[in-house]
Amino acid sequence: MKNFSSTIRDQRLIQAALGRGLPPLTGEFPAIFAGVDKVCLVTGSDAPASLRARATALFPEGGQPHSYYWLPPSEKAKTLNEAAKLCAFLFSRGFSRNSLIVAAGGGTVTDLAGFAASIYMRGIKWVSVPTSFLGQIDAGLGGKTAVNLGGAKNMLGTFYQPALSVCDTAFLDSLPHAELRSGAGELVKYAMIGPAGLRRTITKNLSHALSGDKSALTSCVAACAEFKLAVVAGDERDERGMRETLNFGHTAGHAFEAMAEGRLPHGEAVARGLRFALIVSRDAGLLKPADFKKMDALVDALHLPPAKVRADFRRFLSLVSMDKKARGAGNRFILLRAPGRTAAARDIKDSLLKKAFEGALK
Ligand SMILES: NC(=O)c1ccc[n+]([C@@H]2O[C@H](COP(=O)([O-])OP(=O)(O)OC[C@H]3O[C@@H](n4cnc5c(N)ncnc54)[C@H](O)[C@@H]3O)[C@@H](O)[C@H]2O)c1
Question: Residue 348's closest CA among 272, 286, 275?
């Protein structure tokens, strides 16, 4: 097991445990579990039984009684109503400010359960246990919690750090290939925005990770999680420009995801958003054609299936202008100047966006 922690500016610690086949964690992190009166294990209703069994083995029922809560599958979980239902469940079971939520699942489970933890009794402790590839390299780390609103992604949410994030890559053994590929959408994002060492690790392991190779997956999770936690430690509340780089490809990606109405997994939408951002970066004269080619080849390597998105450019424009990061501009995107170097750009011409939109959905 590899444990690491980063210290945020106000001296709070972000802690993570990484590895494959981790031991029970209650004994490893006694400070987190001391004084906890009750534990609620939250998972997705479509998760395999093995996921729940492994999560329970990581947090065995000891002094504290466990309650179990199942969320609706995937994005259906991320509504204000589902957060209220989970809070009502906790209340009915007598959960107090000394209680703990363990969220074990994909990014939708950790986003929703983290959100509920942040509002229940003005905030109770939670532990994030991402079980999808995408969750272990990104969604389950860093304390952004969210629900969707009116068809737009992540419009309500909080910054609320888990007491611990646990990335056990043994969970990935039961993950279907389509979910590995979706996670690889976020993986190639890190290769585009991250430092050269991270890019090398990802490039070396990408095809093996896509085919489910255990050691390649563990190497990618360790490298990406370490990078993400360092970025979060430097800019926890997304105010200093560092954390915003993680949003590369996401403004367009979220729009594609919303337009597909549940038919496009998050990471695939992000991968198409990355291609969109690469085309805009090249055509705006920021990114050299040779660098574009290298970065775009990473998207090619994912062998994405056809996007199930209607090519409605007007709707796309309206969605990207609603993005949280638009900050009053007509549109605002994170672009790439070179591998590892991003730049924010606003009010980009529609003609340029249209070409990238068509290129991304091809
Ligand atoms: N908070 C953040 O910083 C952040 C960052 C990136 C993405 N996200 C959010 O994460 C979500 C996407 O996460 P996701 O890709 O994990 O999707 P998901 O939560 O929908 O999970 C995908 C599918 O994989 C299944 N699954 C999960 N773990 C499994 C396992 N070990 N074995 C078998 N099946 C398993 C789930 O049951 C689900 O059917 C989006 O809502 C996105 O907005 C959040």
Answer: 286
User: Which alpha helices (DSSP H) does the chain contain, by range?
Assistant: 30-33, 49-58, 80-92, 107-119, 133-134, 177-193, 196-210, 214-234, 250-260, 266-283, 289-300, 313-322, 350-361
Domains of the chain: 2-174 (3.40.50.1970), 248-362 (1.20.1090.10)
Report the 10 Å Cβ neighbour count for 46: 14
Kindly report the protein residue whose alpha carbon is nearest to atom 41 of ligand 1.
108
pTM of the model: 0.96
Could you read off the pLDDT of 200-230 as tens digits, one per residue?
999 999 999 999 999 999 999 999 999 999 9
Using 50, 70 and 90 to split pLDDT, how confident is the model at 150? confident
Beta bridge partners of residue 6, listed in sequence order = 14
Best mutation site among 231, 266, 274, 302 for ligand 1 pocket (most ligand atoms within 8 Å of CB): 266
Q: Judge if the beta carbon of residue 51 lies within 6 A of ligand 1.
A: yes
Lay out the sheet containing 13-19: strands in order across: 2-7, 13-19, 164-168, 125-130, 100-105, 39-44, 66-71
Q: Is the distance from the beta carbon of residue 128 to the nearest atom of ligand 1 less than 6 Å?
A: no
The ligand 1 atom nearest the CA atom of 154: 43
Q: Kindly state if the Cβ of 138 falls inside 6 Å of ligand 1.
A: yes
pLDDT in tens, 21-61: 999 998 889 999 999 999 999 999 999 999 999 999 999 98
Pocket test for ligand 1, best of 20, 42, 52, 74 (most atoms within 8 A of CB): 74
Percent of the chain with pLDDT over 70: 97
Q: CA-CA-CA-CA torsion for 22, 23, 28, 34, nearest 10 degrees?
A: 110
Give the β-pairing of 39-44 and 13-19: unpaired
Say what the pLDDT of residue 190 is. Answer: 98
